[in-house]
Amino acid sequence: MKILLVFDFDNTIIDDNSDTWIVQCAPEKKLPNELQDSYKKGFWTEFMGRVFKYLGEEGVREDEMKRTMTSMPFTPGMVELLNFIRKNKDKFDCIIISDSNSVFIDWVLEATNFHDVFDKVFTNPAAFDGSGHLTVENYHAHSCNRCPKNLCKNVVLVEFVDKQLQQGVNYTQIVYIGDGGNDLCPITFLKKNDVAMPRKGYTLQKTLSRMSQNLEPMESCVVVWSSGVEIISHLQILIKE
């Protein structure tokens, strides 16, 4: 009987947003206004496709993007947390559900040797095409009207838990660690025994706090964190129970 840990990536594992961090590769480290203004709400992946195309046309190569991406800092206490999980893999399964992309997440996990901590990564698939430009696709299509059209994290989580159940893996509880607005949907799926862990001062925590003031019911318990070390303390309590 294991506990399932679900992580977001941007502003949770790493202390920034990988999609905006990559702009450091652009000439003068910024995007042209017309490209910047082309973003439409809910269509972030399409926007990033245009950003990657622009970087490619400006001659930004894969190795430069990789160097930039792997210079991104981890969130405080996150390295300690991931090492703690590695030491206790008999008690935890661990997945990432992220609106970043497979290339960026692979680079970071590979550079920091944390690939083995995660059993599965769900994110927008990306690859370099024949002309060396990074391309990205939507993770899936879904009918949830709360989420951006490329990714409903709740659909991903429910499908994963169901698939595991079919293979005889039943989690005693789910701990969801995230920061953003798109982490709200999966958190509403959590049950009484589960734990929602929003990062302090970020959108998810502010939204959950507003919901509790409005007495909107949340089944799971909510534990706010600022450092991965606080998450370790909470996980230590859970595995002792």
UniProtKB/TrEMBL annotation:
Q: Which cofactor does it need?
A: Mg(2+)
In which residues is substrate bound?
D19, D99
User: Keywords on this record?
Assistant: Hydrolase, Magnesium, Metal-binding
The record's SUPFAM superfamilies line, in alphabetical order, gives: HAD-like (SSF56784)
InterPro entries for this protein? HAD-like_sf, HAD_hydro_PyrdxlP_Pase-like, HAD_sf, Pase_PHOSPHO-typ
Active-site residues from the entry: D8, D10
rRNA-binding listed as a keyword: no
Query: In the UniProt record, does the keyword Cell membrane occur?
Result: no
The residues that the entry says bind Mg(2+) are D8, D10, D179
**Gene Ontology molecular functions:** metal ion binding; phosphatase activity
Task: Spell out the NCBIfam families in the cross-references.
Answer: DKMTPPase-SF (TIGR01489), HAD-SF-IB (TIGR01488)
Hey, which family's this protein in? Belongs to the HAD-like hydrolase superfamily. PHOSPHO family.
Protein's name according to its UniProt entry = Phosphatase, orphan 2
